[in-house]
């Protein structure tokens, strides 16, 4: 069997087995029990706090060599060494990667904080609605 034939067979098999699988995971609603996704607010808060702590630590420590690297790069370049521009390129790449990591940490922290607030607000609404339903039931 050629590669193309084998590939076509694999694609056909994969396509034949694809179907919508939402709510069909073991333990999910199709199985008659609650979802297996359970994360409590304290767990989310702890992860968010770790992301924030990493952000502050990394923000402090990642850029301390920037000024010295720039001076060294300029000095090497002025002396005719090609390593000056290579050093600057390495620093610029490092700086870009650090900024990406800092942005990701901030995003994680902010998203989890928003999730906690949203979950808390939803919980209050549900409690209020259930309480009102009990009151209404008793007055009918």
Globally, the shape reads flat
The value of Rg in angstroms is: 28 Å
Number of strands: 0
Reading the helices and strands in chain order gives HHHH
Largest β-sheet summary: none
The termini sit apart by 74 Å
Oligomer: single chain
Low-confidence stretches: 20-25, 27-37
Class derived from helix and strand content? mainly alpha
What is the mean pLDDT? 75
Helicity, as a percent range: over 70%
Helical stretch tally: 4
Strand content: under 5%
Can you walk through the features of this model?
With 140 residues, the protein is mainly α. The chain is 74% helix and 0% strand. The longest helix is centred in the last third of the chain and has 56 residues. The chain is flat and about 85 Å long. The chain starts with a helix and ends with a helix. The relative contact order is 0.08.
Task: Give structural attributes.
140 residues; 74% helix; mainly alpha; 4 helices; flat
């Amino acid at each position: 069997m050629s590669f193309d034939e084998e590939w076509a067979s694999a694609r056909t098999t994969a396509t034949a087995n694809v179907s919508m699988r939402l709510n069909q995971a073991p333990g999910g609603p199709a199985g008659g029990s609650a979802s297996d996704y359970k994360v409590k607010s304290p767990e989310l808060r702890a992860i968010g706090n770790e992301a924030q702590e990493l952000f502050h630590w990394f923000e402090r420590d990642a850029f301390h060599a920037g000024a010295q690297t720039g001076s060294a790069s300029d000095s090497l370049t002025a002396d005719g060494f090609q390593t000056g521009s290579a050093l600057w390129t390495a620093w610029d790449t490092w700086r870009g990667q650090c900024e990406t990591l800092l942005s990701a940490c901030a995003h994680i922290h902010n998203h989890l904080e928003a999730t906690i607030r949203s979950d808390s607000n939803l919980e209050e609404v549900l409690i209020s609605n259930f309480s009102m339903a009990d009151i209404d039931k008793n007055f009918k």
